[in-house]
Design a protein that fits this description.
By secondary structure, the protein is mainly alpha-helical. It contains seven helices and no strands. 82% of the residues lie in helices and 0% in strands.
Length: 187
């Protein structure tokens, strides 16, 4: 797989993580490098580990993984999106909890939900005889950078419209889950 193709694949896989990182940035009262590194680490790490896991599973479980990955992503993104909307409407988590949206639990579920497609991509890497270490390193690095940029972009936009931006961010996550579900069911 040439570098351009690998970059395009990495960019495509990282778009869900970028959108989720934008939503994380929307919820911040004050941006720090730590927030950007956390998002980059979680999203980039999962985007690198999931294709590696998919590669390891290979052909043996392909049908089972492809059958459920979109449902898992749909449910996780839906739950997280509804929680963001609830927080925006009630004002929960606003006072003194600027880092609450970056808790390990919240980031774990969000990183897992946005990396399910990368798991399926890893299965196809086994068929294509791709150098898996090069591929996952590239995918992880690209997603790391995109996620950091997403947090920054969300923070810049969300600074003016905090509650409305968090409400929109929750809606975006729900729509992202619906998009993933529909793509796998009908396309």
């Amino acid at each position: 797989m040439d570098v351009f193709t690998l970059f395009m694949l990495a960019a495509g896989l990282s778009m869900d993580a970028f959108a989720a990182a934008v939503c994380k940035g929307l919820a911040l009262e004050k941006l720090s490098v730590r927030h950007m590194l956390a998002a980059g680490g979680w999203f980039g790490g999962f985007q690198a580990l999931m294709p590696l896991a998919g590669y390891g599973l290979g052909v043996r479980f392909k049908e089972k993984i492809v059958f459920v990955d979109h449902w898992i992503a749909f449910v996780l993104l839906g739950v997280i999106g509804v929680d963001m909307i609830r927080d925006a409407c009630t004002g929960a988590g606003k006072e003194g909890e600027a880092d609450g949206s970056f808790s390990w639990r919240a980031m774990l579920f969000l990183a897992l939900a946005t990396s399910m497609d990368a798991l399926a991509a890893g299965v196809t890497f086994a068929f294509l005889e791709v150098n898996i270490l090069t591929a996952v390193s590239f995918i992880g690095a690209v997603t790391f950078l995109f996620a950091m940029a997403g947090v920054k972009a969300g923070y810049v936009f969300g600074g003016r419209y905090k509650a409305k931006a968090e409400l929109a961010g929750g809606g975006i996550l729900i729509l992202l889950g619906v998009k993933i579900l529909l793509e796998h069911m009908f396309f």
